[in-house]
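Blinded run. Sample ID left blank on purpose so nobody reads anything into the name before looking at the predicted structure. Input follows.
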Amino acid sequence: MDKEEFLEILRSQLRNIQGEDLAEILQDYEEHITIGIEEGREEGELIKSLGDPNEIAKQINADYHIKKAETTTSASNILRAVYASVGLGLFNAIFVLGPLLMILSFTLVLFIIPVVLGITGITLFGASLAAIVMPEYFQATTYNAVAEIGVLFISIGLTSLGLLILIGDYYVAKLIYELILKYLKFNLDIISGKEALK
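Blinded prediction complete.
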């Protein structure tokens, strides 16, 4: 494989990286190869020592998407970072997808609880308010306005609790986002061999 073929494979595998970022990556590899040739190394040997351009592209893609998720917080960016990290290999799929699915399940439960509390509170509020305002439609033999007012306050408490938990969940979700990024970076360092050098 020659320099042009190596760079073309790298370019095609880095199609998700656009503009200046892609140009800079390709320029770095081109300069590395050119300097190696100027120092007397054989082009084929030098390119072989760099490794498989497909594997290099996978690591660059993962690193690029992790950095992008760090700078711009969004669900799509974290999913791209996870997808790129999973693409590094079967071993990585197990060590990224397993913990990620557990974390996502936990996060989903965190957001379901306040929604259920809020819906329960609003439903109770509506029912008790209707019973207070229109008692003739609620022909209960043991109707008690004081009890309905108590239920009204309980419903307000449940709705408020749901809102407070939802606000707390926002901060927990931000923390989970940061932890996922740290885990992906740690994982990428291990895959690329950086962790062994530290």
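Unblinding after everyone has recorded impressions. The two ends are 33 Å apart (CA to CA).
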